[in-house]
Structure formats: structure tokens, C-alpha cells
Amino acid sequence: MAEPRRRPLRRHRGRTSRRALLRRARLRSTGACRRGRRDTQDRVLLVREHGLRAVRRRGPRPHADDDPHDEGGESVVAVDAARTTEGEYPKYATRVLIATAVCLLAAAAQAQGPRLVDGQLESDLVPSPVEYYALLPPGYDDLEEPVPLVLNLHGGGGSRDVLGVRQQPIFVGMWEAGTLPPMVIVTPSATGRCFYMDYRDGSQNWESFLIGPFLAHLRDTYNVRTNRRGTLVTGISMGGMGSLRLAFKYPETFGAVASMEPGIAPIDDWNDMRPKHRFWRGNDLMESIYGSPVDREYWNANNPATIARASADVIRESGLKIFLEAGDEDLFWLYEGTEFLHQVLWDQKIRHEYRLYYGADHVGRTLGPRTEEAYRFLGGTLSDPEPDPGVEATRRRIDPLKRRLTEADHYEVDKALIEGGEGQ
Questions:
Q1: Within a domain: 182
Q2: Which of 179, 193, 207, 304 is in Cβ range 3.0-4.6 Å of 156 for a Cys bridge?
Q3: 25-34, 186-195, 235-244, 289-298: which range is least confident on average?
């Protein structure tokens, strides 16, 4: 945008008025506040060219949040070098200082917006260092209480840039709209297509890394909750598979999981694997992770559907909140594996939410809105739902009818209700 035209400086006895110079410097300062950002160099040049003294005061730069390690810059206040004795131009100097203070306050408020922090962690468990991005919510520096931590796992061949580039605008928009509670969202860069697993040969141990030193590092570094309800995990594709495995194996650690189009097969035994279930995963990849040849028992022990069957009681009793989704046009046919897991959870009476998105593929424009839905689910698990008077009134009329039944309904809560009533 072009600079606005300025009025010519008043002339006083053949020279530029010092009062006008001071006024120009002050107007540029306040204009910078209105525009949100203005480099102070032009004011410094104005001051130097006309024999004024530049008084530098420490303070945050307007865009200190661009660099999380920026400790601030300098603000420039123009003062007449020839007339600084007490009683000379006091009201103008005061106005300049006030304008500068307003700029500093505006910059400080801007610095309290969401911030993307660059981090890394060394470990012998995986190829190191593991780089990650942590997205901090608005007002993070002023938090009095810790906020939830979300482990956000990227898909195969991806990196932390999934959060830093594609997902960050989604979460910032949700915070601005008030649809997402404050939380710290972290995405580590995993090596290649590691499935977030401990390799059969022990060469890489991503599961042990994530659940051990990485989680401990995040809890020590950021102001996040350390209880299970405040520790959430999510992911897409390979990350969706990894998030399910972590949540099902460690329900005492995670309060909720949101798995988006997980890269899972519609089977719970390796011997039932068909080419269509892994046509994009060659033998070299599978054998590097599960052993050569693939160790059937090891594959079964790390398959989310198999884990859900074997650990159904533990998962059910933990109260783990589960969200599953896939698109019905997924180019890898992953809706089959997601639907299969939904049926396993249903048969095991493990409560969960399942969505099959109409017309949605594995990639493309639907991923943004679907990510919002997954995070709305995660955010909703952080507090108990408010009572619904309409539901309660209806249940009071229907529950006596249920007590006349002899067979149990699906979930245990209904079974307990029937067993507690008078069966006929």
C-alpha cells in the first residue's frame, strides 16, 4: 500500500519547525499502532536528518511472536536534542511516550496469539534428533492452569509440517471461533513409514519413544496436564493407525483418541491378509517392521482390531473416548478396515463414535472439515456434558417399559437397568 500523502512541514524563520518534526515522528508512531506493524527506521532517519535525538527504549517488537525465542526490540522516541530542559515541550514529549506505550501494549497483545514452537529431542530409541512442532494456544504465557496435551500423528511419508503448514490455520480458526478449548498440539516428525511401532528387530522403537521419553519431555517442557483425561492422541492414515494402537494399549495414559481414516485392514489375523488390504505396502516395508518373514503373532499383537478384542474389558472399563472416521471413497479402501473395527468395538460393547463421510476420499478438500470434527470430539471429552432436561423427561417415561423386557440391550448401562428392574 502506498504511503499516505503528508502535509508539508511548516516553515518558521526560514527553517523547518522543530514542533512540526516532533509531530511527524509522533504521527508515524501512532500510525504504526493503527496499522499493526511499522518498521521504526523511517522515524529514526527523520530524527537524524533534522538534528533530533533518538531515545531508544527496550520493548517487544510488533511481531515478536514470529520468533518464539525473540526477546524484544527497541522503540524509538523522538526528542528535540536542542530543547530538552525541564519545562520545554512537555506535552509533546508526553504524547509521544503515550503513543509508544500504546504500540508496546498492542504488540504484547499480538504476541499472546497462537504460536508455533520448534523443538527436538534426542533418543537412542529412534533415529535422532526427532524434530517436532508444538502449537501453543492464545494466551499461553498467561495461563494459570495447565491445558490438555494432544499428540497429533502425521500420515505415512509426512512430517511435522502437517501441523505447521496445513493444520495450523484450522486450529487457529477454531480458537478464534471459540469451538476448541485451549490445548497444546504437538506433531513429531516420524521416520518414513514407521507405523509408530516398535520394530520386530529392535532397530526402531517409536511406540516406546512416544509413550516414554517424548511424552515426559512434553510434560516437562510445556504447561500441560499430566492426567489421562488431559492427554489426547489423534492422527491421520498411518497416524490414525498409530493413535489407535497407542490408545488401546495404554488406556490408562490417554483419555480420548480420534482416528482419521486409519491405515488398518478389515482383519484381525495376519493369515487373512489379502493383496487389496495392502497393495500400497510392499513386502520390504512390512518385513522391515514385522520381521522377515512377517511374524504373524507380532502383527496380530499390534493390530488395533486384535488389541480391541483381547483388551476389551480394560478398554471398556477405562472409559476411553473413541472417535473413528473414514471417507466412503477412500482411494486405499480404508473404509473397510474402519468399518471392521467399528463392528469389533460394537460387538465388544466398547462405546465409540463412528462416521462414514459421504463422497470423501483419502485426500482433498474434505480433510479440513473432518479435522475440525475430530478436534471438536476431542475438545468435548474434556468436560462432562450438561444435563439435557428433554432426554431425562423422556427416559422417565420409557425406562419402566424397558424393565418389562427379559433380554439385555446393547450397552452395559441398559443391561444393568434391566437386571435391576422386575423382569417378567
A1: yes
A2: 193
A3: 25-34
The span from the CA of 47 to the CA of 54, in Å, is 6
> Mind giving me the DSSP string for 268-296?
SSGGG--GGGSTTS-HHHHHHHHTTTT-H
Residues in a beta bridge with 76: 56
Listed residue (384, 374, 383) closest to 150, CA to CA = 374
The answer to whether residue 33 is domain-embedded is yes
Q: Give the separation between CA 216 and CA 6, rounded to whole angstroms.
A: 57
310 and 408 in a common domain: no
pLDDT in tens, 75-105: 333 334 344 443 343 455 545 555 555 455 5
Residue pair 52/79 in contact by the 8 Å Cβ criterion: yes
Say if residues 137 and 114 touch (Cβ distance below 8 Å). Answer: yes
State the pLDDT at residue 404: 80
Residue pair 143/184 in contact (Cβ under 8 Å)? The answer is no
User: If phi over 0 gives left and psi between -120 and 50 gives alpha, with beta otherwise, what is residue 13?
Assistant: left
Where does residue 196 fall: left (phi above 0), alpha (psi -120 to 50 degrees), or beta otherwise?
Answer: left
The residues pairing with 121 across neighbouring beta strands, listed in sequence order, are 130
pLDDT at 313 over 80: yes
Grid coordinates of 34: 493503527
Both 76 and 152 in a single domain?
no
| Cα(178)–Cα(366) distance, integer angstroms | 21
Q: Please give the Cα distance from 335 to 328 (Å, whole number).
A: 6
- Determine the 3-state secondary structure of 281 from DSSP: coil
Domain that holds residue 339: 117-380
- The larger pLDDT score, comparing residue 89 to residue 250, is at 250
Q: How far is CA 40 from the centre of its chain?
A: 34
Q: Which amino acid is at 198?
A: D
Question: What cell was used for 125?
Answer: 530409541
Strand intervals (E) in 216-291? 231-236, 256-260
State the cell numbers at 294. Answer: 512377517
Return d(Cα 185, Cα 163) in angstroms, integer.
8
Q: Whose CA is closest to 36, among 120, 96, 113, 135?
A: 113
Same domain, 260 and 165: yes
What is the CB neighbour count within 10 angstroms for residue 44?
A: 17
Query: Among the three residues 111, 146, 170, which one is the final residue of a domain in this structure?
Result: 111
Do 208 and 312 have their domain in common?
yes
Domain assignment present for 139: yes
Q: Say what the pTM is.
A: 0.72
Task: Return the closest-CA partner of residue 113 out of 50, 163, 182.
Answer: 182
